[in-house]
Every structure is written in C-alpha cells, then in structure tokens.
Amino acid sequence: MLKKINLKNKTALVTGSGKGLGKACAIALAEAGARVIILSRTKSDLDKVSKIIKRTKGSSKSFVCDVTQLKEFKKILQKITRLDILVNNAGNNRPEHFTKVKQENMEYLTNLNMKAAFNVAQLCSQKMVKAKNRKKIGGSIIHMSSQLGKVGCEGRNVYNMNKFGVEGLARGMAVELAEYNIRVNTVCPTFVETPMVKKFFKNKKFKKQMLDNIPLRRAAKESDVATAVAFLAADSSEMITGTSLVVDGGWTAQ
Amino acid sequence: MGIYLKDINLKGKTALITGATKGLGRGAAEAIAESGGNIIAIGRNQSELDSLGKKIRKLKVKYTSFKCDVNNYNKIKNFINNLKQLDVLVNNAGTNIPETFLNVKKSSLETILNVNTKAVFNIAQLCANQIIKLKKKQGSIINISSIFGLVAGQKRTVYSMTKFGVEGLTKGMALDLAKYNIRVNSVCPNIVLTPRTKKYFDDKKYNKYVKDNTPIKKVVTISDVATSITFLASEASSMITGSSIVIDGGWTAK
Fold it and tell me: Most exposed of A105, B31, B106, B180 (fewest Cβ within 10 Å)?
C-alpha cells in the first residue's frame, strides 16, 4: 500500500547544488538511490558534495556551470545521456524595500530566478520527452519555490515576483507535460537554516520577526526540504502534479 | 534516516483512523501499519473491522478496533478520552450525496454536514485534546479533504461546502495546535476509485468527465493517497503544517 521513496535507476539533475538547499537535495536524492548530476559555479563546493555522496555509496557527476549562461548549460546537457528528474533549484535573493530596489538587482534576480529557471526547465523537458519509455516510467520536475511564492513579505518584492512566477510556470508546465507523464511541482519552504539564511539571521531583530511568523517557532532544516523534494521526485507522488508542497511550519496558513 | 533524507517511519506511534474499514481509510490503516505504526480503527461494521484487523496484525503492529458511528459524539468521546496512546489522527470518515444545487434535499444536507463537518470537527478536537493530555512531544492530524475543497464540481455544492470548510478548519487548527507541536494538514485527492465511488465510475459519462479533467490521464489510487497520508503522519514532514497535499494528477492546476 505504501509507496516508498525509491529512486533506483533514476538520474536526477540538481542546479545550484554546491551548497544550501541544492546540496541537501542532491545528497537526499542520492540517498534514495538516484544517480545525481550536480551543478554549481564553484568547483570546490562541487567536490565537497561529490565526496559526501561517494561516502554514502551514492553516485554523482559534477559540472561547473552558471545556469544563467544558457550555452554553457546546453553543452552540459549534451554530455548527459539520461535524465528523469530535475530539481530546478539555483536561485538567489537580495532584499530591498520596493522604492529602493536597484535596477541591477532586479535584473540579476529576475534573470536567475525566472529566466534561467525557465530555460533550464525547458531544455531538460526537451531532453526528458525524448526517452522512448518516458510515458511508462514517468519523470518529475521540482522547482524550488518559496513560501514567498504564496504570500508577500517586506523587502522581498522582487523575490515575490520571481517565486509567484515560478508557481505559475509550474502549473503551466504540469498541464503541458502531463501527456508525457512528466510531473511538475514546487516546494515552498519557509526560512531554512542554509548559509544564505544564517547570514540574514545574524540580524537578531529580523530573526525574531521571522520566527514569530512561523507557528511552529522554528526554521526549517535542509533535510525537511530535501525530503519533500525526494518525495516529489519519486513514484510515491505519482499522481501529484501542478501543485506545491508547502514546508513552512504554518507561515502561509495565517 | 540518511543525512538529508528522512524515512517515512511510524514505529512506536499510534494512529486513530475513522472510516477505517473501506476505501481511503482502509488504505491509510494499511500504509501506516506498513511503516510500523499501531492502528486504532473506527468503523460501523464489526466484521469489516475484524477482517482489517487480520491484515494489520500480520504486519506485527498493535490493532484495536471500535465499532462506532462518528456521529455518536458521546460514545466516541468516551472512547478517545480513555486512550492510553495516540499520536496521529487520520480524520477520514466522510460521505457524499451528489445532487444539483436546486434539488438538494434537506435530509442530504443534514447527513453530509453532520459527517463531513461536525463529526470531523468533534473528532479532531477530541483527539487533539487527548494527544495534549498524553503529553506527546509531537502529533499529526490529517484531515481527508478533496479537490472539491479547492474547486467546485457539478452536483457537489454541499460536498464542496463541507470540504472547503475542512480546508479552513485545517489551517485554523494548525495555528492553534502549533505550540503543542501538533501538525495539521489535509490531503486533497481527485476522485479516487473506491468502493463508494465505483458506482460513479460505472457511468461512462462520469468516467469521461474525470479523465478529461485529469491532465495525467490516470485515476488516483487508494495507494497514492495512503502514501501521502503516511508521509504527513510521519516526522518526514515535520515542518509541514496548515497545508494540503493535492493528489489530483493536475486537475486543479488548470
């Protein structure tokens, strides 16, 4: 009756997997049995992640890649023979009040969080639909969204715009890729204890303000999000598509 | 348990399931037992409760059954208040009588409201109080909702009214129970093929209506829903509360 989270014989690509959530997702997918392709701009980060995956008897392949460089990403895809799962994770945030948002920051965030997310998803989908047995074995694309893809937050207007966009993209893709049995979903975490958030949390006032908004009064752990991603990647969720798994300790329920 | 991948494990936990003898409730009981959880089954039919018990005990977990109609508040209150173990509630018992809005009978309205709304509320309240009384460090309540808790469907006005209500209840409970680390979520399945819905699927027009509205052209199985319920019941989802897992093959993404 229970469909276990099992990714044996699956190949997964995780963008932005040098650190933080991407790293956690890559390792979790490997732990569930997948062969993992990890991408990051920083070679030393990739080496560390590869080592951990190797230590847990998983299998990985790494490529240095900036996902905003479409040509670079295309070349890497050409070197990959098989792809069943994409974790579209690479993203960033530069919090600023709406009236103060610098043009260059809006450009940078939108290019990464939306344009690159779209391009990577499109290229990977094109690769995935080519597999002859795709309809039978299915595929899964998981976009790393955020609770801020569901509700607004101070100083997060560009990030809000980007992540609400990703929510829309996921639904559109889900409807179109259903005929290939490729499922498309998002994961919407609250603040997660990642290197990026730890930096924000150095501001004690900000940390308190954020935790006060999480009914469970704790930030999410990387493993909470990575487990949700693995659940969506596996056949445990084979009828789940075009929706979000909200891992927010109750933030958006209010 | 890996470094980042959490197991769906309910060893040592006790789950109470209403409407446990048939369909989704029975599936949930089996899936939770497969992941090591003890089962308390509530249903109206003793011989079905016994046959479920045979199956559950084979999985080497404890099984208790209680023959009771969920509308019988005093009887069920007395039972829940005396439980020695309780960690998880699968608030499943539900019903439906499809009628067009203009022709909904007063008796149908009463029946559906009593089971899907009032009994769901009462049992959730009783179980939450008992989990708190037993001083559990964590708890999980899963309300069985539906895609008709998110969107409307033909001849589903009362059902939608009650399931939209369950969605609201879920979010409200999640906030009030967060301080006890009791998480509350719902699952929203598409129309699942169960003994109760079989008669709908036998109607060709209805069958086509479901398929045409489900981008992934498959019917949701009991196992699909039971897996999501078990994921929510376990600590693999320890930061998920006040939310819904939508298992609809893309129905509500359109």
Answer: B106
pLDDT at B16 over 80: yes
pLDDT at A147: 97
- How close does chain A come to B78, measured CA to CA in Å? 30
- What is the reported pLDDT for A84? 98
Helix (H, G, I), strand (E, B) or coil at B143: strand
Nearest to B237 by CA among A235, A224, A230: A224
Which residue among A16, A20, A90, A159 is the active-site one?
A159
Contact criterion met (CB < 8 Å) for A239 and B218: yes
Task: Give me the residues paired with residue A59 across strands.
Answer: A35
How many angstroms separate the Cα of B220 from the Cα of each of A43, B39, B86, B96? Answer: 43, 24, 29, 18
Q: What's the average model confidence in pLDDT over B53-71?
A: 98
- Supply the pTM of this predicted model: 0.94
Structure confidence by residue, pLDDT tens digits, A97-106? 999 999 999 9
What is the rounded distance in angstroms from the CA atom of residue B129 to the CA atom of residue B142? 15
CA A228 – CA A237 distance, rounded (Å) = 10
Give CA angle at B23 (B20, B29), nearest 5°.
40
Q: How far is A64 from chain B (nearest CA, A)?
A: 23
The residues with which B247 forms a beta bridge, in sequence order, are B189
Instruction: Give the bridge partners for B156, in sequence order.
Output: none
What's the token pair of residue A52? 């951990």
Sites in chain A below the pLDDT cut of 50 = none
Distance CA(A128)–CA(A122), nearest Å, equals: 10
d(CA A133, CA A9) in angstroms, rounded, equals 13
Q: Are strands A35-40 and B244-247 parallel, antiparallel or unpaired?
A: unpaired
- pLDDT tens figures, B20-57: 999 999 999 999 999 999 999 999 999 999 999 999 99
Does residue A159 carry a catalytic annotation? Answer: yes
d(CA A122, CA A147): 24
B204 Cβ under 8 Å from any chain A Cβ: no
Match 């103060």 to its residue by tokens.
A100
